[in-house]
Specification:
Chain lengths: 436, 122
């Protein structure tokens, strides 16, 4: 009941005045009421404690010398109660009793006034104490709100004293990295040495930018090394506190575990650009790459080839050996492409049993040499289906290079015409034929 | 895009044409003769049929007449493919009920323009 009620801020501040001398009590009460305070006057410490047990007050004034329970003992009783710890208590003492004043502060008095009471001084001290307490309560409420929000969001918190390089991290911050939950402080290295080596520059530059004042917030998505040897993706956010000259002296913020979100994002990106069966680029991505390569080849004037690779009679393979075996063949072809392609060559699955390769910086004759290596390698591979039957797979390749000024579509059509020619000549071959 | 039924007995031509159709985003089913073509038309209800006229078992002329005589299939557009050399095939194809006509070997750009027009995409 000692806590300030929700509506206390709108209501006049309430003062409990314990003073055994009736004249003094009445006078002080009236003057305080004239200042807008709500005052309850009681004649001794015992009554003061009873009043406090019945309702909340914003401040207590205790006379030192009182019957029943003296001011100093009443103070001790108030402070002994858990909810009385932050209630402002001002002692009223006789002038020149410096020992009393020291004792009062030792017992937890917030302030004192001397008798005879100089009302202007007393009013100023009362007002200061009430304002201080209000600020304290608001700060605590806001800290509690933030801590609660952080806990609800499962975020870790960090607070870095820049001047002394002392970094506090919350238990959840450590827990996120798989470490035992502890709130032991350390230096900033505590943080930075846990940042993934590849992301350290990103974190540093984001921090520097904010501390310099170049960004309104510090915000950085990066990896943190976790205690199991792996890493977690985190979103670190924070804001610096600056002195009058604008120099930062403290920066604090939160750390959110975004590993799951990041994984979902990576998967989405992979799904959008890759064929799930073979892991090669899908048709859309392949065409996007081809457009880029055609533009680059036109601009920088280098040769560019494009090659179709079509499995021969793949429908029969599926019909005879079953779709799981057919899928295995497709994956094997994809693997063969990966093995034989050179750095910079771009392979994709165009659809069904149709693969494609983009060969940047490559004349068609060289593209056919690579195609022939893949074709022979496939021809030499023995496949076995789920019933133990052996079978062979072959593929037909049609390659073309880009003519000056022509588009990606034209290049695809030319490669398609080459593939047609290779099939007409009996499949399991490349067109144009290998030059020896 | 669209479901296309390709009725073509030449395996290589069927292969190349269906690949090109698929690359344009269409779904393709292939029948090697007029008889199975009719059955697939009934079971699949394609958006468009490309019909080679020189088919085994049941030729394209007969298959087209049967398609156009069937009230449930009549509305499906049919493009006839005939050998380039044969004069008068165009008229015969239109007479049989084909909605359009092209010659082999296929000029892909021209054929795909006709497909797009009949599908209402052009």
């Amino acid at each position: 009941m000692y806590a300030v009620s929700e509506t206390a801020r709108e209501k006049p501040a309430s003062v409990l005045l314990a003073e055994d001398d009736e004249m003094s009590r009445e006078m002080l009460s009236r003057r305080l009421e004239r200042r807008g305070y709500e005052v309850v006057g009681v004649p001794d410490g015992r009554c003061a404690l009873d009043a406090l047990a019945g309702r909340a007050f914003d401040l207590v004034l205790l006379d030192w010398m009182m019957p029943e329970l003296s001011g100093i003992d009443t103070l001790a009783a108030i402070r002994a109660r858990q909810d009385g710890a932050d209630l402002p208590v001002i002692m009223i003492t006789a002038k020149d009793r410096s020992d009393d004043i020291v004792l009062a502060f030792e017992r937890g008095a917030s302030d004192y006034v001397t008798k005879p009471v100089d009302f202007a001084v007393a009013a100023a001290r009362i007002q200061t104490q009430i304002a201080l307490r209000k600020a304290r309560l608001e700060l605590r409420a806001s800290e509690e709100r933030y801590a609660l929000a952080a806990r609800g969001a499962n975020d870790g918190l960090w607070d870095w004293n820049l001047l002394e390089d002392v970094l506090y991290v919350s238990p959840r911050w450590r827990e996120m990295l798989g470490e035992p939950a502890s709130d032991q402080a350390g230096a900033s290295s505590l943080w930075l040495e846990r940042v993934h080596a590849e992301d350290l520059d990103t974190v540093r530059s984001a921090l520097d930018a904010h501390l310099r004042g170049a960004s309104a917030h510090f915000e950085c998505e990066h990896r943190m090394r976790s205690s199991d040897g792996g890493h977690v993706w985190v979103l670190a956010r924070g804001m610096a506190v600056r002195d009058a000259a604008g120099r930062p002296y403290r920066i604090a913020g939160s750390q959110t575990d975004i590993t799951a979100r990041r994984a979902a994002y990576e998967q989405l990106r992979l799904d959008a650009t890759h064929d799930p069966l073979t892991g090669l680029y899908n048709r859309r991505q392949l065409l996007a790459e081809l457009e880029q390569q055609v533009a680059a080849a036109q601009r920088y004037q280098y040769p560019l080839s494009f090659c179709f690779c079509d499995l021969d009679h793949f429908k029969q393979i599926n019909d005879t050996h079953g779709h799981p075996t057919g899928d295995r063949v497709l994956r094997a072809v994809a693997e063969m492409l990966r093995r034989h392609l050179r750095v910079g060559d771009i392979a994709g699955r165009y659809g069904g049993d149709e693969f494609c390769v983009i060969f940047p910086h490559t004349e068609v004759a060289r593209a056919v040499r690579v195609a022939e290596r893949i074709r022979r390698s496939l021809e030499a591979t023995a496949f076995t289906d789920s019933s133990g039957r052996h079978f062979r797979v072959s593929a037909t390749f049609g390659a073309a290079d880009r003519a000056e000024g022509s588009s990606a579509d034209t290049l695809i059509e030319r490669a398609d015409a080459a593939l047609y020619a290779a099939k007409r000549e009996g499949r399991n071959r490349s067109y144009p034929p290998l030059q020896t | 895009m669209a479901n296309i039924l390709l009725i073509e007995d030449n395996e290589l031509n069927a292969d190349m044409l269906s690949r090109r159709l698929q690359r344009s985003g269409h779904q393709v089913v292939v029948a090697p003769d007029g008889q199975s073509g009719l059955q697939l038309a009934q079971s699949h209800g394609p958006d468009l049929i490309i019909m080679d006229m020189g088919l085994p078992v049941m030729d394209g002329w007969t298959a087209t007449r049967e398609l156009k005589a069937d009230a449930t299939l009549r509305a499906i557009p049919v493009i006839a493919l005939t050998a380039h050399a044969v004069v008068g095939d165009r008229d015969r194809a239109i007479e049989a009920g084909c909605d359009d006509y092209d010659t082999k070997p296929v000029d892909w750009a021209r054929l795909s323009a006709k497909i797009a027009r009949l599908l209402g995409l052009g």
